[in-house]
């Protein structure tokens, strides 16, 4: 007589295989979850209030990408976001699309972004500008004179200059459209 396999003896083996399968699937998902959480943290920018200022904006002689002399005094009559940045700076790179989008949305209201790149030669900066499709003025500060005039070496840093050439607000670190809408847009309506 042939011996029948006992169904009860298979149950622990099946449970072990199911548990191992669930464990392997869970272990495979952990890197995906961690990477997604890291990406969410990297793109999150806290909407923080600016430092309020009331001082004359420096008018440091700089050059544009074509080598023409420029100064901030050329922008009088506009609300200007003066952005100090560098091509090698990851937070600077991350905020450029935000600055471009806000500039496109508000340039018709007397708003201007002036991005002052600190230290890189014109060809490097021009490649960056083309890659990011920036349409606002980009100026060169090869010796970091503008950073010295503002006494702020942090990159990125952004300043709001009013229509009369007075520094009104400052952020150290990247800004985004939400920050600009909250704090800059009301100035454009005046």
Shape: elongated
- As a percent range, the share of strand residues is 15-25%
CATH architecture title of the largest domain: 3-Layer(aba) Sandwich
Helix content bin? 40-55%
CATH fold call of the largest domain: Glutaredoxin
| CATH classification, class level of the largest domain | Alpha Beta
**Total discrete domains:** 2
Number of strands: 8
Largest sheet: 8 strands, mixed
The CATH homologous superfamily of the largest domain corresponds to Glutaredoxin
Helix/strand/pairing category: alpha+beta
Within the largest sheet, what's the order of strands? Answer: 1-8-7-4-5-6-2-3
N-end to C-end Cα span: 99 Å
Rounded to an integer, what's the Rg over CA atoms?
Answer: 27 Å
Output mean pLDDT: 86
Low-pLDDT sequence parts: none
Order of helices and strands: HEEEEHEHEHEEHH
Number of helices: 6
Chart the SSEs and their pairings:
Blueprint: H1 7-43, E1 51-56, E2 62-64, E3 69-70, E4 79-85, H2 90-106, E5 111-118, H3 122-132, E6 138-141, H4 145-150, E7 157-161, E8 166-172, H5 177-183, H6 185-188
Parallel strand pairs: 4-5, 5-6
Antiparallel strand pairs: 1-8, 2-3, 2-6, 4-7, 7-8
Keywords:
2 domains, Glutaredoxin, eight-stranded mixed beta sheet, 190 residues, elongated, alpha+beta, 6 helices
């Amino acid at each position: 007589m042939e011996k029948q396999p006992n169904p009860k003896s298979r149950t622990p083996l099946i449970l072990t295989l199911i548990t191992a399968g669930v464990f392997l699937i869970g272990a495979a998902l952990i890197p995906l979850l961690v990477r997604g959480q890291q990406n969410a943290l990297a793109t999150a920018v806290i909407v923080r209030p600016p430092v309020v200022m009331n001082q004359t904006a420096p008018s440091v002689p700089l050059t544009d990408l074509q080598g023409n002399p420029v100064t901030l005094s050329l922008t009088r009559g506009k609300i200007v976001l003066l952005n100090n940045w560098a091509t090698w700076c990851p937070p600077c790179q991350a905020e450029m699309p935000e600055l471009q989008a806000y500039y496109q949305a508000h340039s018709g209201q007397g708003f201007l972004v002036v991005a002052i790149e600190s230290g890189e030669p014109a060809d490097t900066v021009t490649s960056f500008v083309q890659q990011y499709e920036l349409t606002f003025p980009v100026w060169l500060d090869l010796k970091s004179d503008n950073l010295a005039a503002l006494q702020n070496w942090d990159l990125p840093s952004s300043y709001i200059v009013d229509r009369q050439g007075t520094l009104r607000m400052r952020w150290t670190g990247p800004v985004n459209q939400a920050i600009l809408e909250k704090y800059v847009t009301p100035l454009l309506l005046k």
